Amino acid sequence: MSNLFDLSGKVAIVTGASRGIGKAMAHRLAEHGAQVVVSARDAGACQAAADEIDALVGRQATLAIGADLAHKASLQALVDAAEAHYGKVDVLVCNAAASFHGGPMATLSDEDFRRTLEVKLLANHWLAQMVAPRMAARRDGAIVIVSSVGAMRANAGTGAYSISKAADLALVRALALEWGTANIRVNAVAPGLVRTELSRGMWEDPVAVARVTASYKLGRIGMPDDLAGIAVYLASAAGAWTTGQTFIVDGGALS
Known about the structure:
By secondary structure, the chain is of the alpha/beta class. The chain has eight helices and seven strands.
């Protein structure tokens, strides 16, 4: 029997992959056999992450391509370059994140709200539009969008972020419906508090960590690699009959 988690011959694009959750997912996808396009806005950081992943897996498993999620042309160039180099894209992991506003909705500027939705929602829609038709032609593909538990409950000061992440869950359901008969699986992953650069302000504060993890059944915040396994599952044959779902990976906080 074949390995359900074997990704040999698959090509994956992972955005926001120069660090944190994205890099962990890119690493584990490569470890399971995929060729991975490591993408983020900083091309130098992408290359450093790609070199690190190649060293860890012991082969040339990655291609580093910088892209700016706020610009559709940049994302099209990313997809075009991936397809030109590898011939196809089998897996898309939309992980890129950015923080433009921390505070109540009453102080949220139109520009910050617009940028939040562009990077966390519109870019995912664009990328799906770009890769899905060729996936459909091959009748095989997997799209994974990294959302957040913030999509399911309100948190002080993260209104715009939570709104964009909740919209991602609706996007996943819409895409799963529209592309399901072409055997394209579309799912979301919703992490709790994870030790990443974006959440540094939270996990560097012992009082804040204690407050947050009081509801975590596992008693700790997450590490980037805690999210990598679910990406491998959803990208591989193991997830062949899984679509339109949101996988909450939060140490048991919402259970």
